[in-house]
Amino acid sequence: MSGTATSGGDDGRWALEARGLGKKYRRGWALREESFRVPAGRVCGLVGPNGAGKSTLLGIAARLVEPTRGELRIFGRPVGDPTVMPRFAYLGQDKPLFKRFTVAECLRMGQELNPGWDQAVAERIVREGNLAPSARIGSLSGGQRTRVAFALAFGKRPELLLLDEPMSDLDPLARDEIGSLLMSEVAERGTTVLMSSHMLSEVEHMCDYLLVMAGGRVRMAGDTDELVPLHTVVTGVTTDGRLPDALASHTVIDVRTAGRQFTALVRHEAPLDPAWQLAEPSLEEVLLGYLRHPEAPALLSPTAVPGHREEHAA
Ligand SMILES: Nc1ncnc2c1ncn2[C@@H]1O[C@H](COP(=O)(O)OP(=O)(O)OP(=O)(O)O)[C@@H](O)[C@H]1O
């Protein structure tokens, strides 16, 4: 983990720390006074169904959305603190680039606005997409515009990258290339990434931390390595069409029956019946279980709970 507690009272161990963070729109709460944290140096997948509150959370972190309640800290500083802005880059779903600018002019703007600008990195991303520096943004395809937006985000050399469904309009090759670039940034520079995505295979491949949301609430948060092994896929037989009583000793997240057989994703809280067939689920299976059942009891690992002391995070 790359973040450290720094002088001046800020605590760099937590890239994001939310306490009672809420956002209410006229039609209701988009984020319901939630508390969680994301350690620095991690790639955190932000997962949830449409309308879960993911963009709202990313918008609050990027200072585009004003919270109604609570507080969000970035690297230990309140999100409104002027020292926070240069430390993150945000890539929203609509990527608002100036359409009349050329690609080169966009990069020049990035250079002028950002003191730590890395022109070589930004140019490389543009070049690998075969984009002419003289091409106007308005003439580019959606995926090509996304590439320029990525060049601007990476060129800023941020400590925190806030990405709202960043790769949804990239072709498979560009997706693979930008994904690798993201992973090498994380490995080389300890950049923290908070990335919303509906592509569970992408989340499984890239993310080592999770924030699962539904209905404006956090349903699961923590280290993937800690969360996944708390679950088991149990297969067994029903009795007279009923699920076995012993299943009720565990938290059942998702259960399906086919003929006399049942398959359940459970959070095991006691030894599991040896008559059942047991398997460790993939991250994708766990995510699907929680997405299908947003009413399942929330699961936050200690690292994800603000105020919880975490020795190995220091
Ligand atoms: N500017 C806004 N004004 C009013 N309501 C809003 C606004 N932005 C979001 N909402 C509402 O807040 C809730 C959460 O929306 P949000 O965009 O954060 O969800 P999301 O998880 O990012 O969804 P998606 O996966 O579809 O992008 C939704 O019910 C949405 O209608």
From TrEMBL:
<protein>
    <submittedName>
        <fullName>ABC transporter ATP-binding protein</fullName>
    </submittedName>
</protein>
<dbReference type="Pfam" id="PF00005">
    <property type="entry name" value="ABC_tran"/>
</dbReference>
<feature type="domain" description="ABC transporter">
    <location>
        <begin position="16"/>
        <end position="240"/>
    </location>
</feature>
<dbReference type="GO" id="GO:0005524">
    <property type="term" value="F:ATP binding"/>
</dbReference>
<keyword id="KW-0813">Transport</keyword>
<dbReference type="InterPro" id="IPR003593">
    <property type="entry name" value="AAA+_ATPase"/>
</dbReference>
<dbReference type="InterPro" id="IPR003439">
    <property type="entry name" value="ABC_transporter-like_ATP-bd"/>
</dbReference>
<dbReference type="InterPro" id="IPR017871">
    <property type="entry name" value="ABC_transporter-like_CS"/>
</dbReference>
<dbReference type="InterPro" id="IPR051782">
    <property type="entry name" value="ABC_Transporter_VariousFunc"/>
</dbReference>
<dbReference type="InterPro" id="IPR027417">
    <property type="entry name" value="P-loop_NTPase"/>
</dbReference>
<keyword id="KW-0067">ATP-binding</keyword>
<keyword id="KW-0547">Nucleotide-binding</keyword>
